[in-house]
Amino acid sequence: MRIRDLFSRDGPVFSFEFFPPKTDEGERKLMETVGRLQELGPSFVSVTKTGARPPEKTIEITARIKRELGLEAMAHMTCATAGRDEMARLFDAIHHAGIENVLALRGDPPRDQPFVRPPNGFRYATELVHFIRDGGYPFCLGGAGYPETHPEAPSAELDLIHLKEKVAAGVEFVITQLFYVNAEYFAFVARVREAGITVPIVPGIMPITNVAQIERIAQLSNARIPATLQAELDRVRDDDGAALATGIEYAAAQCRELLAAGAPGIHFYTLNQSPATSAILRRLRAEGIGD
At 50, which CATH number? Predict the structure, then answer.
């Protein structure tokens, strides 16, 4: 199933994102987590590429989820440290594994290092998308969008130009970076539509489960935490249970507003954990949202 086709159906598209664990035991637990979330009926799941594991592990786990659990699955592929020959080898492997959907990303450079185009490699995700299309790979391609602007972009205007180029090159839907202010998503979608971009723009939501962790991730992602939420997080900073409850309540409210305003679905950044995402989606379904 090509993910782009899911957006032509009635109802919102819910999806979950996972990353490859560092150990075999972690991978076993991940498959159990995905299995528990399966009963919630996600439209698809995605598996990221992390620096801790080789890209082959992303392909392997994505294929396992599709084969063993019967869920549609998408592999993330980054090119920040790989040249064209290496990327061609990986895309051949993805195709051979029966994976139809790929999230095409430039990715981040090694920690605390500036990005440097690898030899015979790519500088932007747009170049990677062109490479995939020119190579004749039959993937349905997703791409990333940044409601609060990519951290490396000189301006929101230039960031939007790059997104338009990426879609023109062959991206069929966009998943946004996490955000905690819905107005940022709505304003981003308005700018995107005004620029003539018509593909689905799926909001990416990361439920808060640990205060220090989410503050760090938000800073790296250029995602603003509003003052009212920050004050609540400060109040529950040392209480893991209260922090989890706060995160669930806030994310559920985000999702309600986003879907009521016409968002095509929700992409949950799970951090390989099921309780928060499960609680949010169960609550939405109990309210008749997404049934």
Answer: 3.20.20.220
